[in-house]
Amino acid sequence: LSELGSESAKIKAMGIMDKLSTDKTVKVLNILEKNIQDGSKLSTLLNHVSFKLHNFTLCRIEFSSLETKSADACLTAINIMTSPNMPKAVYIEDVIERVIQYTKFHLQNTLYPQYDPVYRVDPHGGGVLSSKAKRAKCSTHKQRVIVMLYNKVCDIVSSLSELLEIQLLTDTTILQVSSMGITPFFVENVSELQLCAIKLVTAVSTF
């Protein structure tokens, strides 16, 4: 899927995605949806659960595999749909909604808590700290898999703005995308995501 994501980006840049068989492209999108679904509900805040070292390592490997797989599937699907001159058949509503659900879920439940401690939930029910105090205690170190997921999600958010300029989406989908584009401006330490969100909000405002 990682290779498929890279190759689909190249084919998109070359402007020849529309030369592929429509039927086969639709089949690929339906397969990608299943891969996106695998990671759309996976909780990644492993530091909130106590594991033995062996089990923790296995869980982290499983998380890494599922998340990168699902993120690459999202990127591949978006690359296909945002390529020039694509037929209407490729704009599958279920696939678009699955990409948005995946992105929103991991922004809210994985990335925001990792990058901004204000969004973290104390599993031990400790005393209430102010936003400033929480941020002061925050470590800047991030696991490699979290950084990788963050970069991929930024690419997805940026590509969704392209999709909005191409395809008419339902009102419900637009509301979800609007929420996704606005929230990053209230989160600390996500400047790259905020730049992508500006593009997304701009695209929504012209809808």
Automatic annotation (TrEMBL):
| Alphabetized GO MF terms | chromatin binding; cohesin loader activity
Q: Name one GO cellular component term.
A: Scc2-Scc4 cohesin loading complex
Q: What is the name listed in the Swiss-Prot or TrEMBL entry for this protein?
A: Nipped-B-like
Q: Per its UniProt entry, which superkingdom is the organism in?
A: Eukaryota
GO biological process: any one? Answer: establishment of mitotic sister chromatid cohesion
